[in-house]
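INFO batch 0412 | record 1 of 1 | parsing
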Amino acid sequence: MRRMYSAVTAHRRTVLALFILACLVCLGLKRLVRVNYDINQYLPPESPSTVSIQVMGEEFPGGIPNARVMVRDVTIPQALEYKARLAAAEGVLSVSWLDDAADVTVPLAAMDQDTLRTYYRDGAALFSVTVDENNYVQAAAAMEDIIGPEGAMTGTAISMANSATGTMGEVQLIGAFGVAFALVVLAFTTTSWLEPLLVLAGLGVAVVLNGGTNLIFGDISFVTNASGSILQMAVSLDYSVFLLHRFEECRAPGKTDREAMVDALCLSTSSILSSGLTTVIGFAALVLMRFRLGADLGLALAKGIAISLLTAFFFMPCLMLTACPLADRMRHRPLTPGFTGFGRVVRRVTVPLAVLFLVVIAPAFLASHANDFYYGSGRMFGPEAKYTLDTQAIEDTFGESDTYVLLVPGRDTAKQTALSRDLHALPHVTSIISYVDMAGAEIPLEYLDEATLSLLMSEDYSRMVLSVDVPYEGEDTFALVEAIRAVADSYWPGQTYLAGQGVSTYDLMDTVTSDLMKVNLVAVGAVFLVLLITMRSAWLPVLLVLAIETAIWLNLAVPYFRGTPLFYITYLIISSIQLGATVDYAILMTDRYRENREALPKKEALVKTVADTAVSILTSGSVLAVVGLLMGFISSNRLLAEMGLLLGRGAIFSLCIVLFVLPGLLTGTDRLVMGRRRKVPHKHEKQRGVPA
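INFO prediction complete | emitting tokens
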């Protein structure tokens, strides 16, 4: 290892040039990475709704309705004009309305009133629109121009368009605030005005390299695109900080800067590598989710942390050594006080806090697993967002509604008539557009023109479009999806296909709830194994994982006690992210305690360990907490905001446990912590007047 680091530092100009060249290449590649804003597309390929959408795309043109558009104060003829204009808008594949379900030439009083109220009520017309998934933004803008400010739009397509247009500006703002805060914190925790810029330069290189290499995935989700760079910066900040502080400790008279850097790398490799590997594994565990958003985020973050490790071990040492003369000329006195006094405070409170920690483990675990959840993207925007206001306006007029599409095999009109009758009898089914509902089973197929028939029947399937008065998710929605599938399967067992936003949300719920235990067990088990190998102790992995897992349970218990539902996706992801991001602090604390314990009694080792590590832990932890909270307060996308809030609050819980509880757990189990490592003789401890 020393030989490798000696070679790296000896050829530092070459190393710097290679990294800079790679950055320039990745800046260009990043523009080629496509961003996917549709969460439902990350359902597993074998999920029923995914299979249904694929079959429908092969059998019928026009796709699945994914937007609802309302215009106010219109007559039937005016509504038909709006329908034609919407159908001609860029990115719009098809539009359905009352004229597709009933004869609009008859008096309104003579129509089926349930069908009428589904599409036209109090002078307002509600259109069901299918938007091309590759043109969400353009289609939403075009439709908004057509309906004007008095109109309203909702649905998956509109939600994704709003996410695409609003997210990136917010991400840039969050990133700017995060970098500014990191700069201030680093200015206080370093002793040269140049060192914060060096640390941020290293982070910037790692972020750019990760962003460009995301091209290997083809596309990434908007969750990964919005949070990946911010999380990578916040999580990997401590690698450079740990190295920088070690380098300052290793610089001594008679030793060159290069020798000091090699010593610092050798001394810090174990802590940094253990921290990095546990973080990589924590993120990589998300790959095991059947819901592929986990793999999308997990792979990108795991790759980002691996790149950050390479940057810390190769780019940062070369950059620090190159900038050392200038950094020395820009030295300033320490702006933070020594933390020895803080270490003494921790020593006094750590035992009662450790007891409190043991008491809250069980309640925190139980509460964290008793939360209520949202599963889909229907509640992705806050109460003041235009999407939310538009959705509420539509629901105030027409009630909660959605559109499902059901495919049944063949052209057996008698069987389809019976199916339609049974579906109409289901609660919440308000109207059905199908061949047997529009033309009637008694009208021969050849009497319909090919254009109309092609929308309702293909060579192998018949299509039924169901309007339902349930929201995009909830108990009524999930019960209705199960009921429709059961009725359809009673006629054609295992041969029918159902799709729609509520259907996808049902499958999403069914998918992600089966992922939780698997992902958590693998993440915890893998982190445990890495700690077992790197620390060569059977007790320490148990202690450190328990400490961070308790911080996670406390974090997730807060929404339960507040009665606030969570997005299940963030609930599932945050456990792996918080474990991977904050176990580093526990590793650093433990490594330093064992190192100090070889020369000092327990209590003195505790004080010195807290004093040695507090700056590094607080620097990284405070940046992670602030960046997360900024994301929580700034982002208008509630899924991203919730992820940020959980991350920020989780970082604070982890900081508190590592700084105030873990030292007591280490001293309280000192014999197990130290194992076979050399310790100060008991006699020496007595001579110093400090109890063992």
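INFO post-check: Confidence is low (pLDDT under 50) at residues 679-692.
INFO record closed
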